[in-house]
Amino acid sequence: MTVVSAVIRPPRRIPWPALVALAYAAAQLALVVPHLGLGWDETVYLSQVDPHRPAAYFSAPRSRGISLLAAPVLAVTDSGGGTVLRVVLALLSAAALYAAYHVWQPLLGPGRTALAALLFAGLWTTMLYGPQAMPNLWVALSAVAAVGWFLRAAHPHVGWRAPLGLGAMVAAATCFRFSDGIWLALPLLAACAIVPARRRPAPALAVAGGFAAGGAEWIAEAYARWGGVGARLHLSSTTEGGMGTHWAGGMAWRSLNGPLLCRPCHVPLAHPELTLWWLALPALALTACVVAWRTRRDAVILLPIACATAMSIPYLLLIDYSAPRFLLPVYALLSLPLATLAAHSAQAIRPTRARALTAGLAAVLLALHLSAQYEVLDRNTAAARATADRYRTAAHDLRRLGLTSPCLVSGTHAPPIGYDAGCASANVRGNNRNTTAHALLHRAAREPAAALARTRSGPPRYAHTWTPHPLPHTGFTAYTPPR
Fold first, then answer.
1. Per-residue pLDDT for the chain (483 aa), expressed as one digit of tens each?
2. Alpha carbon of 379 to those of 224, 261, 348, 389: distances in Å?
3. Measured in whole angstroms, how far is the alpha carbon of residue 439 from the centre of its chain?
4. Helices in 103-246 by DSSP H: which ranges?
5. Distance (Å) of CA 170 to CA 173, 180, 441
6. Each residue of 389-406: b (16+ CB within 10 Å) or e?
7. Closest of 461, 467, 472 to residue 482, by C-alpha
8. Which value, in Å, is the radius of gyration of the alpha carbons in the chain?
9. What angle do CA 92, 154, 188 make, to 5 degrees?
10. What residues contact 130, with CB distance under 8 A and at least 6 apart?
11. Nearest partner of 336 among 150, 124, 83, judged by Cα
């Protein structure tokens, strides 16, 4: 009987979503982690919780979620965000990818869920920012899980898990980026009000409660440091260059393959043939909407598209610069209806031979897409590594000049170089202004200090009598005060 049972036992299904997450982790560990130094924004986030380094200025638009995520690693290592942090974040992001898309398995099935996860994980931005201490990827995965839990929480006989998961994921997205939490919560609350089947108190309360919990720290800090939410929002707008009506779609397209920050964004489009997938996204989203109407799968297709559209508004219509990471939540949400569209298209082909041929062609196109993403990843990883190497070299030279903690580094590039050197950073102008020239000079008279400037631009006004020290191979000159 045992032998017969073993013979007729159905074969186990391949755990495709888990395999996608494992491949994502392996790609990060092999292609990104060994080659990546700390970027500017990372040093700002990490310095807030690094017990071995002074905290850099934390500007009004930022949120502290990513700092809290990295805090346990920095508490047990003094590497300052080195390889240990990279490996931990790579593994955590792969686990979060699996967990976020796993929420959708009861809605889409394992095959479509795995395809959606692969479409998102295969993007070069997703791979590059997986092991980085940056909030955008974590907002994206939180948004995917939040929309999935929302759809599952809308059923009248659902238990407590779905509303709790929904609230937790909205809270996480808001904690990572307060503004993104707003744009995620709005379409979810609108669905609760507009769609009759969604007019239940549990989902709406979960969204509102999650947003309140995730934004509590940001709001409290707004009153503690800036005098209120309105004042912080106004300063955030100023820091972002003035939030208003700006068409940034062209900038997002031109910066799609790099640079990692396009501000000001006057770069020419590099390799336009590698942007075809991006240009096709609106058409594919509209096609998915048609499929939703015909197949009556409107919820699992239309709601992710609605949330993706809402979360793209600030980055396409309200700012005058761009960065490839800004639209990661949009890509993550759109991967779900696109996977559904691909599966529906395959099922619509009736002859078995034609279906197999179409599947093979789709596999080839996907392989070409992933190889193109790898090409862009390799180029941008090299660019990020070169910038981080310049910062590390400059920090080493500052230590050679006698800057040891406690010390002070000022100038436009002070935050990342000061972090590497173990010094506090200060600026008297720009978006990171956190002191005055008088206060800076007073502090420089009491501890080792240096003012950094690009060699071709000369010293800052307050340091015009200081001694110049060119920092080879960095493009910077350090100016030290007389002792």
1. 444 444 455 556 889 999 999 999 999 999 999 999 999 999 999 999 999 999 999 999 999 999 999 999 999 987 666 899 999 999 999 999 999 999 999 999 999 999 999 999 999 999 999 999 999 999 999 999 999 999 998 776 778 899 999 999 999 999 999 999 999 999 999 999 998 878 888 999 999 999 999 999 999 999 999 999 999 999 999 988 888 888 999 999 999 999 999 998 989 998 999 999 999 999 999 999 998 888 777 889 999 999 999 999 999 999 999 999 999 999 999 999 999 999 888 877 767 667 778 778 888 999 999 999 999 999 999 999 999 999 999 999 999 999 999 999 999 899 999 999 999 999 998 888 999 999 999 999 999 999 999 999 999 999 999 999 999 999 999 999 997
2. 42, 14, 39, 15
3. 35
4. 105-108, 110-121, 124-129, 136-153, 161-176, 178-194, 201-221, 229-239
5. 5, 10, 45
6. ebbbbbbebbbebebeee
7. 467
8. 25
9. 65
10. 24, 28, 32, 89, 90, 93, 94, 137
11. 150
- Residue 236 phi, psi (nearest 5): -60, -45
Contact 253, 278 (CB under 8 A): yes
- Find where tokens 């690693």 sit: 73
Secondary structure of residue 362 in the 3-state scheme: helix
Tell the residue number behind the tokens 């068409």, with chain if given.
Answer: 247
Exposed (0-12), middle (13-18) or buried (19+): which is 292, by Cβ within 10 Å? buried
pTM greater than 0.85 (yes/no): yes
Q: Which residues contact 341 (CB under 8 A, 6 or more apart)?
A: 284, 287, 288, 291, 301
Burial 135-174, CB ≥16 within 10 A → b, else e: bbbbbbbbbbbbbbbbbbbbeeeeeeebbbbbbbbbbbbb
Query: In sequence order, what are the residues at sequence separation of 6 or more whose Cβ sits closer than 8 angstroms to the Cβ of residue 126?
Result: 24, 120, 137, 140, 328, 331
Residue type, 8: I
Q: Tell me the residue type at 298.
A: D
